[in-house]
Specification:
This protein has 1026 residues and is of the alpha+beta class. The chain is built from 40 helices and 29 strands. The radius of gyration is 35 Å and the shape is globular.
């Protein structure tokens, strides 16, 4: 047997593979196929293909965090109740009736006309009264228990430094509330809310601060000292306000490239700062008149000294512009620094920059122990007020300087090497040795692995990976490669496609450089404008982006039409950068998907498109008119996004392309374990990375596009991945180099000629083997997913007909919902807002007015005064709900996903099959049965014979219209389930249009002689025996 080459084409949800045997000039295709699997993320088929999926663990993690949060809150309230009960502040059995009786007692002390308003704020009224007179014990218990329901926002300095945009909105809300409290003359938060009229102003949905509740608690305890001792006060305080610290994330720090058992060194250490400076200076070149030279020894030492200095030359981010560095280094006229990658700034020693900002010229005189103590304060102190006290006290800084320093965060990223590795290399790097030379001289350039006969489990091989998409790709890669090795032996070499662009031509690079320079000049101009008009000392990229967006919309919010000034834009958090199509939906963070929005409108739009949030309203039409007047090259695109009614499927997004690049790199590292390294111990290279652009041209040239189509690549058949893999296997490094060097004008000629690549004999062989090209699907039978839907329903109001009530927000109402509103008074108010007499005249478009909260109907008394604003209504729905939980935890819910469809055959008296019947088992039923150590369903039943079970992804063979078809199950339900041909890669709507989406009943499956099979990587079938 000749040279065996394995070609691999990695995708987000697929792996194409091909085994090629090359003996002298003869090439033979041994086997090929495609492996199809679900991406390592959740989402619909369209969402995943468009790059909109989220990690399968993300939703579970969020739900778990919420459950833990609720559990801690319950435990906190239970602990508080125990303390209150044990000290006589509440009876032993506390229920809602007790609180009602206490509230009613207080309410009767006020005039009748005031009671309707006070009825909404009674708990706050207790908190107000508790400041001025001694309450009865039960009243005091009621007051403290209400105070503990919410604790407010707790400031965390480190988190605020990371998320200044969100923190700014929260702090703005808190400051507005503080100002309102001060203006009202109230002493505490509770007293202020007791003065609010809830009929005109909402108490909920406000940003509050932890200190507001803490101060109020202390004031109440001081006023109620007759009942609350100092010891009891501390017990109550801890029960209400104690908060555990966040779990350390040290275990998530990456590993050193040289010493994998050691963690990477943080840039908050001086060794990492010096490493970056030395490697940067060693790569620095001096350019003059088109010629480039390296730095002399004196020039190197001078530049390093400047970068390590305590000087005002640096920006707040610790960088210095190359132009400033050139001047400080005293370069000759016409000379300039060049890093070769277009960088205009380079890092100095960030730690020295921080010290200089704090202590000025005295920073250089500080002892090492004092430096470490200062950095430790910045790193360890989380509360801003505590840090300010430390800076003004111990470090003797002025209040103004302390506030400036408190906003400084130590570098939080990590170097690629451990502290041990840095200490070994710093001396040589300082003397001018480049990092690549040092690694080569110390035998660190080629990482050698233990040689394996098969690929080991990925999680056990020491390669770091936290990307769920890539993890799934490499897990399937192991399954495919090991199966190939078992059958054909270990390949002599592996060709792997890398999703990278081909090297651009000189002309293309020149055009890119011109565009980048134009953008850079525009940004510099805007930065200067901001510094002059807004008075900002440091202009951030975010500030520049805001001004660019403001110029585009003429300093007018496109959503509300309100104008804003430069000061309002850059200060106070009034104006936010907003994704037109939500980032969570599009993963598009480009300028073309951004605009500006006032804070209030941003919250109202939430995670929706403009049409979803405001569509079919007058405000929406006015919004489109404003967007039509946008300036700039992206104006037309943004208008299209504002008009977009439905987010359509797109090609793979840049995020997915990055995932493929990342997967390819890791795959090379992973596959190298078969040979002890990418280059084996004999110096022979075994793993080759092929550029994706090359394979596209080569596939066209040898005729690969004619195997499934008529000259164009066919993506509707899963086998196109195998064709790509075969092209990758055919592609040699020499051919890649040849194609990469081709100018664009010669590429077309190359594409039209296949003589340079392969003869027709191989094409004919590949054409004849298309039927043997296997397509296998990964089947997931795990019990994963939501056990039931999230909505909790009411009891059955339909006398056994499953008629239940559900609360629905007005902005989510449909015309059908209006007809099913339970309360006739509420329905009448809604119809009145719509200016309609009958609920049959309501349309979905007319309900768009409720997207604006100003249009919500209001309940009023006979005298015309408002009682309550209607935000949600109860809808009667026919829902087949079931009961879960017991006691207070009893809930009525609808089933979640279906887990399995069990197929049974009915037998006649002779034991012959007469027809098939099916039973769908929900995931909730399966889990409940598993908890009792029972199987998912009972197979033995009187008069029935179990045939097989079906789950999504199972493979079945059917005989339809005289043809044998191999299909994959795409969905299970009754009375019909769905399937489609195993090789068909089209979406559901396209399959339906082509009549290739089959939805048989169980009876039809009997007539089609359906049989379930297991399928391996090579497409070989084996009858499934459930």
């Amino acid at each position: 047997m000749g040279m065996i080459t394995l070609g691999l084409d990695l995708g987000i949800t697929s792996i194409g593979w091909a085994v090629l045997n090359e003996d002298c000039d003869n090439r033979n295709l041994v086997a090929w196929g495609s492996r199809i699997f679900d991406a390592g993320v959740e989402g619909t088929e369209n969402e995943i293909s468009a790059g909109k999926g989220v990690s399968k663990r993300a939703e579970r993690r969020i739900k778990k965090a919420l459950r833990e949060q609720y559990a801690r809150r319950r435990e906190r309230k239970k602990q508080l109740l125990d303390i209150l009960i044990s000290n006589g502040f509440l009876p032993e059995h506390v229920d809602s009736d007790f609180f009602t009786s206490i509230d009613k007692k207080l309410l009767m002390l006020f005039p009748k006309e005031e009671r309707p308003r006070l009825g909404h704020v009674l708990p706050y009224l207790y908190r107000k009264i508790a400041l001025d007179r001694v309450l009865e014990k039960y009243e005091l218990g009621r007051t403290i228990y209400h105070l503990a329901q919410r604790r407010g926002y707790l400031s965390n300095r480190k988190q605020e430094l990371k998320d200044q945009e969100t923190t700014g909105a929260v702090k703005n809300g808190i400051n507005e509330l503080k100002q309102a409290i001060q203006n009202s003359g109230a002493r505490t938060l509770g007293e202020y809310f007791s003065m609010v009229d809830p009929e005109t102003e909402r108490i909920r949905s406000r940003y509050t601060e932890r200190s507001m509740f803490q101060d109020e608690f202390r004031m109440i305890c001081n006023a109620q000292r007759k009942h609350i001792s100092k010891e009891l006060e501390e017990d109550l305080y801890n029960a209400i306000f104690f908060q555990r610290k966040l779990k350390s994330c040290k275990g998530l720090i990456g590993k050193c490239r040289i010493y994998p058992e050691r963690s990477r060194c943080s840039f908050s250490r001086n060794e990492a700062q010096l490493f970056r400076i030395y490697t940067t200076v060693n790569n620095l070149r001096i350019e003059k008149g088109g010629s480039v030279r390296s730095l002399t020894e004196d020039e190197r030492s001078n530049v390093i000294e400047i970068l390590c200095s305590y000087s005002p030359i640096f920006n707040k981010n610790g960088k210095v512009a190359l132009s400033k560095l050139q001047k400080a280094a005293g370069l000759a006229k016409g000379e300039k620094f060049n890093l070769g990658d277009g960088e205009k700034e380079i890092y100095g020693n960030e730690l020295n920059v921080i010290l200089y900002r704090a202590f000025g010229e005295n920073a250089e005189k500080m002892k090492i122990t004092e430096r470490e103590k200062f950095f430790n304060d910045l790193l360890s102190i989380e509360k801003n007020d505590v840090l300010l006290k430390r800076l003004t006290g111990y470090w003797n800084l002025s209040q103004e300087k302390a506030e400036e320093v408190a906003c400084i965060g130590l570098p939080d990223d990590y170097c690629a090497y451990s502290l041990k590795a840095l200490q070994e290399m710093l001396v040589d790097l300082q003397s001018g040795v480049s990092l690549s030379d040092w690694l080569k001289n110390n035998n660190h350039t080629q990482v050698l692995y233990q040689e394996f006969d098969k690929l080991p489990l990925f999680d056990a091989c020491g390669i770091e990976l936290r990307n769920p998409i890539v993890h799934r790709v490499l897990t399937e890669l192991r399954r495919v490669v090991n199966s190939i090795i078992e059958r054909y032996g270990k390949p002599d070499r592996i060709h792997l496609e890398l999703a990278r662009d081909l090297k651009a031509s000189n002309k293309e690079r020149e055009q890119m450089t011109i565009r980048n320079r134009m953008r850079e000049k525009e940004r510099e101009k805007i930065a200067q404008l901001i510094a002059e008009e807004a008075g900002l000392e440091k202009v951030s990229r975010n500030d520049i982006l805001k001004v660019m967006l403001a110029d585009e919309c003429d300093f007018t919010c496109p959503y509300s039409g309100k104008r804003f000034s430069m000061t309002e834009l850059l200060h106070g958090g009034l104006v936010h950068i907003e994704h037109i199509i939500p980032y969570s939906v599009s993963f598009d963070d480009s300028f073309a998907n951004k605009t500006l929005c006032l804070n209030k409108l941003n919250s109202q739009k939430d995670n929706r498109t403009p049409y979803e949030a405001f569509g079919d309203t007058q405000a929406y039409l006015e919004m489109l008119e404003r967007v039509k007047h946008f300036k700039g090259g992206d104006a037309e695109r943004k208008l299209e996004l504002f008009k977009l009614r439905e987010v359509q499927q797109e090609e793979f997004m840049e995020r997915n392309l990055n995932d493929t690049r990342y997967a390819s790199k890791l795959a090379m590292q992973y596959l190298a374990m078969l040979f002890g390294g990418i280059v084996d111990k004999n110096g022979k290279r075994r793993i080759f990375a092929i550029a994706g652009g090359c394979t596209a041209m080569i596939r066209r040239a040898w005729g690969g596009n004619f195997l499934l189509g008529e000259g164009e690549k066919v993506r509707t058949d899963h086998r196109h991945h195998a064709i790509d893999a075969m092209t990758i296997a055919l592609t040699t490094p020499q051919l890649v180099q040849k194609v990469a060097k081709m100018s664009s004008e010669y590429r077309k000629k190359f594409n039209e000629s296949s003589a340079e690549l392969i003869d027709n004999k191989f094409f004919n062989q590949a054409k004849s083997m298309m039927e043997q090209c296997s397509v296998s699907h990964h089947i997931v039978n795990k019990m994963r997913g939501a056990l039931h839907k999230e909505t909790f329903y009411s009891k059955d109001y339909g006398n056994g007909q499953s008629l239940r009530h559900e609360r629905v927000s007005l902005d989510m109402l449909t015309a059908k919902d209006v007809q099913n509103i339970v309360d006739p008074v509420i329905k009448k108010l809604i119809l009145g807002k719509l200016h309609l007499d009958s609920d049959k005249d309501v349309t979905d478009s007319s309900l768009k007015i409720f997207k604006d909260p100003a249009n919500y109907p209001v309940m009023r008394r006979r005298d015309g005064s408002s009682v309550n604003t209607i935000r949600k209504v109860r809808i009667a729905r026919t829902v087949n709900a079931r009961t879960i939980g017991k006691g207070d935890g009893r809930r009525e819910v609808a089933n979640g996903a279906n887990y399995v469809l069990a197929i049974f055959a009915k037998l006649n008296e002779q034991g012959e099959e007469t027809e098939w019947v099916g039973e769908v088992v929900s995931l909730l039923d399966v889990v409940q049965r598993k908890q009792k150590s029972l199987p998912p369903f009972e197979k033995k039943r009187a008069g029935l014979k179990f045939k097989f079970s079906l789950q999504k992804g199972d493979i079945v063979k059917i005989y339809k219209d005289g043809d044998e078809k191999l299909c994959i199950i795409r969905g299970i339900s009754l009375p019909q389930f769905s399937c489609c041909p195993i090789t068909d890669a089209r979406k559901q709507q396209d399959l339906k249009a082509a009549k290739c989406w089959f939805t048989p009943t169980v009876s039809a499956a009997y007539n089609w002689k359906m049989q379930k099979y297991n399928i391996n990587v090579f497409g070989e079938l084996q009858v499934a025996n459930d």
